[in-house]
User: Which sequence fits this backbone?
């Protein structure tokens, strides 16, 4: 048997390493109590805290040693081609290997697999442990639904009705019948990341107790961390290193280095240091780790060595790309010389590191192997994205400094190589000049010889002219093709909001002087300069305009004047509509709001509205990111599919929609009103400091931008006075007007891609839910007894009894959102459907559009 390590390092503990697993006694005891007395338990915590180690090395052993239950450890892995569906994988784990008396009525349900195992083994209690359970939700909806139904049937007591009918045809003994009807004690333990807990709501309709008993795993407390360090080193056994110990000073140094601001210790860093100490003891034959081994510089050096050693692992075939991925993209240096780690989705990594000209399939495979290798050597942490695919980040903050040091070395080395290349280029140019001079001399000799005969001179001149014309034609065609490729790259940069990446490409495209694409190049330069101007990055805007020969300018107003003077009216209008909302006039009138089906939330009632304006589209990523950049703000979280400029912004709460509206009002010169916030509130501009119940918005008097009222939203969605009574905004065919669960491909989609409604408004149904101003409350009006369909009225409806310009409840706990989204069914996208959310709530399916009073 190969001697073992005392510390597993960055890998999770296995069941075979249970005697080395220390520091989680309290968590084990707490979790076992829950398992003993509850049917379903959720273990949750941040990634990297050791949920898998706790399950492998402690919970499984405890459950089986104490004979609480037979344990089945199940992991689905993320959905991919060739991967078994969750139900099939769980069935395979539970089903007994040998046939049983139930085999004639066998099916592939979890109930059958578990009952067959119970009858074969005599075991009565079972514990199903699902590690990294968030992977379930990467599978198609049908696979998730099938698993949910199977688990629901398994955890309910009693014999399924279909089995009672089938079993009558079996010749079962009394003992077999007793075993068949004996209740199975099935317990389930789900382990899931904290930021994926909300996914369990998808199972709560069938498993209502799934979130009732939850246990959060946190980083190690100091006493447990000390135990995890000291105990494995002191154990006897067949290990690669002799027994050793830590002096008190050394132990204090290590703990002090590892503790975070809450005084807790993450296990992955503890294991990295301890594994390094174990290696040193094995190599030197020492018997203890002393304070000489643990100053901060040496501990940091261990982390640095770990970083460089792991990057040099043979399985990492493309080390330059690995360095650039981590050091340029996953770590960002801050102004204080330190850094922060960021998370990237696999699609963003593909977009940044795919080699030009290579097929997408080839590059996906190449980068997937690289990412897998970096995860295997524990430099990166991979997480399953909430909407599919994987995201990657540096495995720990301790590696940030190591990555930044490596980057500095790379920069120095790159400059050295660049200098050598420049010197080699100069030598090459000198040699080329000498060769050209020699060629010129020889050519002149040939020409002089040809001067003897006039006829020969004429012939040579004609041939030279023809060659020159052909060369000029080829040069123009080559130049046009190069500019076309550059324009495609620039457009992709703009879509991904990577404006800094466009400068060099615009400069090259302008230098090629293509007459065919001259105007197109100019417009890309102007658009990038417009972006930098609007986010107050004036130096970058000036740098872009210098490509067109425009000199330095002092301020935003002058820059905008130059941009407008250098643009056609049509193009400048295009820029305004791309980066700022375009408002559509909605003539006021009377309409029937709600539905006639009798539910109090949906009573059909008459509403009279004044004229107003509402944005043609949902606020886009381009528009919202311009606001964030102009105010030095950061987006809370990017979606798994990345930020695309022409998609609607999402994952913003109600307050952020109001803050954007206020900023937009100020940007458009409407500074005389607080754009929806009552001036009587102390410091009305400081939105986040106020109790939301105390807010008042003068929606019908404000001329600034604001969120629409719920009534305004529904009136506009129905088509206003032009309404044709459609079920969805613009059509009875939802596929014509909306991105929803059956056509969205589980993500947002570009605005203006679907058919508009009667007013010319896009995406009022689907794509993202839209915040409205109103507090949510059931309609407090009497139903319209004359209503017999879910249709809009018109201005011929009697005004008597109509609610005029309603703004919802005076106060409440939740705000209204309307319209449905990319992840919701068609019914949720109807013009009359209402929903509500806490104003602080965010999700990838929730956005907004702005409105204004006339």
Assistant:
């Amino acid at each position: 048997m190969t001697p073992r390590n005392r510390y597993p390092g960055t890998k999770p503990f296995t069941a075979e390493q249970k005697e080395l697993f220390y520091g989680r006694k309290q968590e084990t005891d707490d979790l076992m109590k829950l398992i003993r007395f509850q049917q379903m338990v959720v273990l949750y915590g941040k990634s990297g805290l050791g949920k898998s180690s706790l399950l492998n090395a402690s919970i499984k052993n405890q459950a089986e040693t104490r004979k609480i239950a037979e344990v089945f450890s199940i992991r689905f892995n993320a959905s991919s081609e060739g991967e078994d569906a969750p139900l099939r994988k769980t069935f395979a784990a539970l089903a007994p290997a040998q046939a049983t008396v139930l085999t004639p009525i066998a099916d592939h349900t979890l109930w059958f697999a578990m009952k067959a195992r119970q009858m074969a083994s005599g075991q009565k209690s079972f514990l199903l442990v699902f590690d990294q359970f968030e992977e379930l939700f990467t599978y198609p909806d049908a696979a998730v639904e099938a698993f949910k139904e199977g688990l629901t049937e398994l955890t309910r007591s009693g014999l399924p009705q279909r089995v009672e009918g089938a079993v009558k045809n079996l010749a079962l003994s009394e003992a077999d019948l007793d075993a068949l009807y004996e209740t199975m004690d099935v317990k389930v333990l789900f382990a899931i990341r904290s930021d994926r807990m909300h996914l369990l709501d998808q199972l709560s309709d069938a498993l209502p107790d799934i979130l009732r008993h939850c246990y959060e795993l946190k980083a190690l407390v100091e006493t447990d961390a000390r135990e995890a360090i000291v105990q494995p080193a002191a154990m006897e056994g067949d290990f690669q290193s002799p027994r050793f110990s830590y002096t008190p000073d050394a132990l204090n140094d290590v703990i002090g280095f590892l503790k975070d601001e809450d005084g807790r210790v993450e296990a992955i860093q503890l294991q990295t240091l301890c594994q390094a100490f174990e290696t040193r003891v094995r190599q030197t034959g020492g018997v203890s780790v002393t304070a000489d081994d643990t100053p901060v510089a040496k501990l940091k050096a261990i982390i640095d060595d770990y970083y460089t050693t792991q990057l040099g692992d043979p399985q990492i075939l493309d080390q330059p790309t690995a360095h650039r991925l981590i050091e340029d993209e996953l770590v960002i240096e801050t102004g204080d010389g330190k850094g922060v780690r960021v998370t990237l989705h696999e699609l963003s990594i593909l977009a940044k590191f795919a080699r030009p000209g290579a097929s997408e399939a080839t590059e996906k495979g190449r980068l997937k192997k690289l990412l897998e290798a970096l995860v295997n050597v524990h430099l990166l942490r991979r997480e399953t994205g909430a909407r599919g695919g994987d995201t990657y980040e540096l495995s720990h903050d301790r590696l940030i400094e190591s990555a930044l040091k490596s980057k500095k070395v790379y920069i120095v080395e790159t400059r050295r190589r660049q200098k050598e290349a420049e010197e080699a280029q100069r030598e090459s140019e000198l040699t080329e000049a000498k060769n050209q001079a020699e060629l010129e001399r020889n050519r002149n000799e040939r020409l002089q010889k040809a001067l003897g005969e006039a006829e020969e001179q004429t012939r040579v001149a004609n041939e030279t002219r023809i060659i020159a014309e052909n060369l000029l034609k080829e040069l123009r065609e080559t130049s046009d093709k190069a500019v076309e490729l550059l324009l495609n790259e620039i457009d992709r940069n703009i879509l991904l909001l990577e404006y800094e990446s466009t400068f060099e490409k615009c400069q090259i495209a302008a230098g090629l002087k293509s007459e065919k694409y001259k105007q197109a190049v100019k417009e890309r330069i102007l658009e990038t300069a417009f972006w930098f101007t609007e986010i107050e990055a004036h130096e970058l805007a000036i740098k872009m305009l210098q490509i067109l020969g425009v000199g330095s300018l002092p301020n935003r107003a002058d820059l905008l004047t130059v941009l407008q003077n250098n643009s056609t009216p049509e193009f400048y209008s295009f820029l305004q509509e791309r980066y700022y909302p375009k408002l559509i006039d909605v003539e006021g009138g009377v309409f029937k709001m709600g539905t006639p089906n009798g539910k109090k939330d949906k009573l059909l009632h008459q509403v009279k509205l004044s004229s107003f304006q509402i944005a043609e589209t949902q606020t886009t990523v381009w528009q919202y990111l311009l606001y964030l950049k102009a105010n030095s703000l950061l987006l809370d979280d990017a979606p798994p599919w990345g930020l695309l400029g022409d998609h609607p912004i999402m994952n913003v709460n109600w307050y952020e929609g109001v803050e954007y509206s206020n900023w937009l009002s100020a940007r458009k010169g409407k500074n005389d009103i607080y754009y929806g916030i009552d001036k009587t509130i102390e410091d009305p501009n400081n939105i986040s400091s106020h109790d939301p119940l105390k807010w008042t918005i003068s929606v019908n008097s404000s001329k600034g931008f604001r969120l629409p009222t719920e009534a305004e939203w529904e009136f506009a969605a129905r088509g206003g006075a032009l309404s044709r009574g459609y079920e969805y905004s613009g059509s009875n065919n939802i596929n014509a007007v909306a991105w929803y669960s059956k056509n969205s491909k589980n993500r947002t989609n570009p605005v203006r891609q679907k058919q508009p409604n009667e007013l010319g408004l896009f995406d009022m149904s689907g794509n993202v839910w839209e915040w409205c101003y109103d507090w949510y409350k059931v309609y407090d009006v009497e139903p319209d007894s004359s209503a017999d369909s879910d249709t809009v009225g018109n201005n011929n409806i009697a005004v008597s009894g109509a609610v005029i310009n309603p703004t919802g409840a005076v106060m409440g706990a939740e705000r209204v959102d309307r319209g449905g989204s990319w992840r919701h069914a068609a019914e949720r996208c109807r013009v009359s459907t209402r929903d509500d959310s806490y104003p602080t709530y965010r999700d990838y399916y929730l956005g907004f559009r702005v409105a204004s009073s006339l």
